[in-house]
From TrEMBL:
<protein>
    <submittedName>
        <fullName>MaoC family dehydratase</fullName>
    </submittedName>
</protein>
<comment type="similarity">
    <text>Belongs to the enoyl-CoA hydratase/isomerase family.</text>
</comment>
<dbReference type="InterPro" id="IPR029069">
    <property type="entry name" value="HotDog_dom_sf"/>
</dbReference>
<dbReference type="Pfam" id="PF01575">
    <property type="entry name" value="MaoC_dehydratas"/>
</dbReference>
<feature type="domain" description="MaoC-like">
    <location>
        <begin position="25"/>
        <end position="142"/>
    </location>
</feature>
<dbReference type="InterPro" id="IPR052342">
    <property type="entry name" value="MCH/BMMD"/>
</dbReference>
<dbReference type="InterPro" id="IPR002539">
    <property type="entry name" value="MaoC-like_dom"/>
</dbReference>
Length: 169
């Protein structure tokens, strides 16, 4: 069945990301909703990934450490959430996989209770030379907190599917 098709007499539309052909270089894609980061999110991610950094886990110790005097959200959680916020709009069901990340930066920290908002710009795309029906896309992700401060940036290359033959949507 195609992405949007007839199932009996009922029209069906399947939620998906964008095919390679639909991704437009230079366009800024805003992803909603944002994600408020909780203490539980941070502690669970930090312990599951075996990161024992006290800045993420020890409230009493972190409260005494300048310049923030508070526990910080694990930056790897921030990165994972930044990319995750883009999935529904950009790559849900239309990506083959990530090829790599570069230019990752965390200019300001995230704290428990902060909300992460994400946006993505496609900066480059080209058809794959070795994989027909697929293309390589460069995404630049930017994460901002609820005050509009940039808290994370990352460049990601992904292998994306082209629209399947016969798919008219």
């Amino acid at each position: 069945m195609s992405e949007a098709g007839e199932e009996g007499s009922e029209k069906v539309i399947r939620q998906r990301g964008l095919w390679y052909e639909e991704l437009e270089p230079g366009v800024r894609y805003l992803h909603a909703p944002g994600r408020t980061i909780t203490e539980a999110d941070n502690v669970l991610f930090t312990t599951v990934t075996m990161n024992t950094q006290a800045l993420h886990l020890d409230a009493a110790w972190s409260d005494e450490q300048p310049p923030f005097n508070a526990r910080l959200v694990n930056s790897m959680f921030t990165l994972a959430t930044l990319v995750g916020l883009s999935v529904t709009q950009m790559t849900q069901g239309t990506t083959v996989g990530n090829l790599g990340f570069s230019e990752i930066a965390f200019p300001k920290p995230m704290f428990h209770g902060d909300t992460l908002y994400a946006e993505t710009v496609v900066t480059e795309k080209r058809e794959s030379k070795s994989r027909p029906g697929e293309g390589i896309v460069t995404f630049v992700h930017t994460g901002r907190n609820q005050r509009g401060d940039v808290v994370a940036t990352a460049t990601r290359k992904a292998l994306m599917r082209m629209r399947p033959e016969g798919d008219s949507e």
